[in-house]
Amino acid sequence: xxxxxxxxxxxxxxxxxxxxxxxxxxxxxxxxxxxxxxxxxxxxxxxxxxxxxxxxxxxxxxxxxxxxxxxxxxxxxxxxxxxxxxxxxxxxxxxxxxxxxxxxxxxxxxxxxxxxxxxxxxxxxxxxxxxxxxxxxxxxxxxxxxxxxxxxxxxxxxxxxxxxxxxxxxxxxxxxxxxxxxxxxxxxxxxxxxxxxxxxxxxxxxxxxxxxxxxxxxxxxxxxxxxxxxxxxxxxxxxxxxxxxxxxxxxxxxxxxxxxxxxxxxxxxxxxxxxxxxxxxxxxxxxxxxxxxxxxxxxxxxxxxxxxxxxxxxxxxxxxxxxxxxxxxxxxxxxxxxx
Length: 339
Description:
The chain is α+β, with helices and mostly antiparallel strands. It has a single domain (2-336), classed as 2-Layer Sandwich (HIT family, subunit A), CATH 3.30.428. Helix content is 25%, strand content 22%. It has helices spanning 2-7, 122-140, 177-193, 197-208, 252-269, 316-319, 328-336, and strands spanning 10-14, 19-23, 72-75, 89-92, 95-98, 102-108, 147-154, 166-172, 212-215, 219-222, 233-237, 276-281, 296-300, 303-306, 309-310, 323-324. The strands form four sheets. A nine-stranded antiparallel beta sheet has the order 3-6-8-7-12-13-11-10-9, sandwiched between helices. The radius of gyration is 20 Å and the shape is globular. The relative contact order is 0.17.
């Protein structure tokens, strides 16, 4: 089976979304004559007087940031969602639309403009984790909020408009499509077995040890069997927890350590500040019990062969389905050597 997976074209099933990804290992050997990105050459200063997110600076809205010394959270000045939009619903034949309300926040990870999570200490990342927990609980407790999405876009190539270390939290009244898919798959499995889908999957991965990148007392970092992006990884708590607010205080440092391990490994991979989009998928805050949920954090990095060669989702991926060349096992082996 292992020989087949590493040499023959095949498709792999994503148990969380119930979708397939096409894997073509032989294509990893093809020569690259496509686009290569320019790498920034200058190092960022610890403070940038022109940065909207640096401590003490004015933002584009005219509001000034406090002289914060650790993590700083504020409502997004250009939020994609608003609490105050007037409700409407349109159903005109096949034309449908309705109001979507919510609250969007920005989370500055550090006052140091030059850093990323990979340059921060485990203790500093733990403060970020604790902030995520608090915001999830506060936003999720609101009557009109049914889902809270915590995420980070790192790097210009991922559309990040400001290099200052920061992430975002979007909370909204309905469940996004990805969450609906993961909610259904986990619920179906839990209803049949009374066990966590990711919990059982993690047991299998820990036995095989083919796709494990890093492990500590409470968390596992792995390349999922169904990974789409070349060096995609997922952080999964060993014990089932439906959301990050259920993470014991003693485990926040272990989660921070796992984040530090994978982000540092990414930066070593192609000797650059490695771009990615990361996000935490966890239980909706719709007041349901949601016992079937097992929260996890995913990293979707676009780099393929080097710091200047990016994986694009085009052609077949746009019109048919996702496809990858580097197998999950090869990616895990490479990353594991860098942790």
